[in-house]
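hey so i finaly got around to running the thing on Probable membrane transporter protein from Evansella vedderi. pasting the sequence first so u can double check i didnt mess up the copy paste, my clipboard has been acting weird all day
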Amino acid sequence: MEWFILGILGLIAAIFGSILGLGGGIIIVPTLMILSNYSAILNGITPQIAVGTSLMVMIFTALSSTLAYLKQKTVDYKSAFIFFIGSGPGALFGVWMNKGIQVDAFLILFGLFIILVSFILMVRKHIKPLSRHPSGIKREYINPSGKSIHYGYEPIIAIPIAFIVGICSGLFGIGGGSLMVPAMIILFGFPAHIAVATSMLMIFLSSIVSSISHISLGNVDWLYALALLPGAWVGGQMGAAINRRMTSDSIVNLLRFFLIIIGIRLIYQGYTGLF
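ok and heres what it spat out for the 3d tokens, dont ask me to read them lol
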């Protein structure tokens, strides 16, 4: 039964992650931590194992989604590699920070982070980009209706942001898209579809770096990863297909609600463990 649950978890996390460019780890990690209290097989999962296993699975989720988005021609290669200049080193630093963190403190910190992400998703449409005409990287996207959309950013601003995103990826096992996608949309004026697709390529690259570090530290449970992988691959493809055919507003609202509930649950679990 536990293995079936893990398979479904991988599928659901990948679908949501692919639709919104989040990677899926923001669902996998807290769910593994919660399930560890109710399952004999999953009992004893530490934050380090949950994060390391999530990042390993995320490689395949992000690769599956990226391949689908490549066919849709919505991936901004140049921007993804520029962001990776920051997110790659940040991921390694996040792995180092993860090594000594305690379970209860991890749960509280992660719960607060999830609620913060929910708030960011709520206000993202009400914040104007930093600049409509940056002096740095300037990009143009022609949407399916033929409308030309201009966006851009300053690398000197984008790379430090990506570094922080990378830290969150290595520390929490979330891939970083939960911060990078809102940053691209809110700060740099990226069209939503381009932000999501570009985020998945960046997550793919960052997850490889983080996973190698976690493997070397023994933080990957290969049986859990194998149970999650089939759903993650299929979900990545499904999420990209759904993203193409619908607006993300209803999905974002549902995800925000889910994140608030699970964030509160994790904070409560961590608080009771500390006190």
